[in-house]
Specification:
alpha/beta
Length: 342
């Protein structure tokens, strides 16, 4: 047999081996989960993608790739259950709908409909929105539009309970869901804070020449969404804009998470400010040994070290199993235990 044929055979075996391992490492769930990627109108003639997970009786298969993660889901499977609660997921800067795919799968397996928008101009394909004054207000608007779509236009809208809506946000997404829950941040604090105490968000905003670093800049107002009844916030960014009484209007229950070794959003200027502002409304969890990116979906076969590397000895998969269970317990308690579809 020629050398070329041997090379071809070896390559085929390698591809088959990698494929087998990838399938074996696909994100799964204890009960069948359906998945759709829908396009939600943005109100300006365009649209943005939203990943939607939900309980189903259809058979799942490890065939759906989201980001770098393979999911064991039933694409477009029929929704099972009625009066299902809805959870919005807001990803962090440069993320996407798959940033918290394991949490979305766990929620859907337990009877929740989960919708994760890909924030326009602030995702892994396009970060142009960071250079605009509307960056944060746009995120806020997309969460509302995604909720409107799931309740008013989605094929299975009649199976969602509009009185049982929660939200999860990580990093910039943590800021976004706090604002959706009623926070009134002072973005005028960005410029002086970044001048005196630079952190990741400051470097990012300087790189894109953000108008938020200018004194007295006017930014579009964000709006609360009174339909949201409970939120989970992980490693919130821009927490320093929520000092004083900025969180007084957040009256819904909050579960707050912070990584002990988070250099991106330091505890003192972010989660600590949020924790103190929320007082008894916050159920606080500190995670020893965790970094900022430890809240992202556990990496599969491949993934950039900046997103996938944890401190030696920190088991991200084990942590996510524990955290996801705690998030389920929190939402079950605050929104009512799921009794159908799970």
């Amino acid at each position: 047999m020629s050398c070329l044929k041997w090379t071809f055979i070896v390559l085929l075996l390698l591809v088959a081996g990698v494929g087998t391992v990838a399938v074996g490492n696909a994100i799964g769930s204890t009960r069948p989960v359906g998945f759709q990627m829908v396009q939600v109108p943005d109100g300006a003639g365009g649209s943005f993608p939203v990943g939607v997970w939900y309980p189903t009786s259809a058979s799942p298969h490890p065939t759906t790739l989201i980001g770098l993660q393979l999911m064991n889901v039933a694409p477009d499977g029929v929704v099972s259950g009625s009066r299902l609660p809805l959870i919005l997921i807001s990803h962090g800067n440069g993320g996407g709908p798959g940033s918290h795919a394991d949490l979305a799968m766990t929620l859907a397996s337990n009877g929740y409909v989960v919708a994760a928008p890909m924030h326009a101009g602030d995702n892994f394909l396009d970060e142009s929105g960071l250079a605009t004054q509307a960056w944060l207000a746009r995120r806020n608007r997309e969460l509302r539009l995604a909720t409107d779509y799931l309740l008013d236009s989605w094929t299975y809208r009649g199976q969602i309970d509009s009185k049982r809506i929660g939200a999860y946000g990580f990093s910039a997404g943590g800021y976004s869901v706090l604002v959706a829950a009623g926070a009134i941040p002072d973005l005028g604090m960005v410029a002086p804070h970044c001048a005196k105490q630079p952190e990741f968000v400051c470097a990012m905003l300087r790189q894109v020449k953000s108008p938020l670093l200018q004194a007295d800049v006017l930014v579009p107002a964000s709006q609360p969404d009174k339909r949201i009844r409970a939120i989970v916030v992980a490693a919130p960014g821009l927490g320093f804009t929520m000092a004083g009484r900025a969180l007084d209007e957040v009256t819904v229950p909050v579960q707050l998470w912070s990584a002990d070794d988070d250099s991106n959003v330091p505890y003192a200027s972010n989660a600590k400010v949020v924790r103190e502002g929320l007082r008894q409304r916050a159920e606080f969890h500190a995670v020893p040994g965790a970094r900022h990116m430890s809240f992202l979906v556990p990496c599969g076969l491949i993934g950039p070290p900046a997103l996938c590397k944890d401190i030696d000895g920190f088991d991200r998969k084990s942590f996510h199993t524990q955290m996801n269970a705690s998030v389920i317990t929190f939402f079950n308690r605050q929104l009512g235990t799921v009794t159908s579809g799970g």
